[in-house]
Amino acid sequence: MPHPIFTTPFAKVYPLYVNKAERKGRTKDEVDRIICWLTGYDAKGLQRQVEAGVDFQAFFDQAPALHPNVALIKGVVCGVRVEEVEDPLMRKIRTLDKLVDELAKGRAMEKILRA
User: Fold this and answer.
1) Three-point CA angle 45, 32, 16, nearest 5°
2) How does DSSP classify residue 71?
3) Residue 27 phi, psi dihedral angles, 5° rounding
4) Pick from 46, 73, 71: nearest CA to 60
5) What is the C-alpha to C-alpha distance for residues 18 and 4, in angstroms, rounded to an integer?
6) Cβ atoms 41, 49 nearer than 8 A
7) Four-residue CA torsion sign, 54, 61, 88, 1
């Protein structure tokens, strides 16, 4: 049975990412930049996905291209090591969680985007 997050609308979680960042003095634009960097969506494509109400499965299935540096993202989020997550979709979701977490913790954008 698939994890419930897979069928959760991305648009339901997206505002939570933005709120988490904004509570720590970061911006929606920075969250969008991270999501676009990770998935290959441009700003309009991201907005279309949010408005369409696609679930996480479709959001990542329809993503233009995962960034080639995604393998450089390591560490723990929600008590789980991102690089050890077996399920490919869950790993992508946890990776996104990790990037937003780094933003909220004040990490420099260049380091978050593994530049």
Assistant:
1) 110
2) G
3) -125, 165
4) 46
5) 21
6) yes
7) positive
Reading the block at residue 91, the tokens are 């790993």
The CATH code of domain 4-112 reads 1.10.8.290
Scan for tokens 């920075």, then name that residue.
30
What region, left, alpha or beta, does residue 27 occupy, with left being phi > 0 and alpha being psi -120 to 50 degrees? beta
Q: Tokens 């003095």 appear where?
A: 25
Over the stretch 3-62, which tens digit does the pLDDT of each residue have?
Answer: 899 999 999 999 999 999 999 999 999 999 999 999 999 999 999 999 999 999 999 999
Around 31, how many Cα atoms within 13 Å sit in the side-chain half-sphere?
A: 23
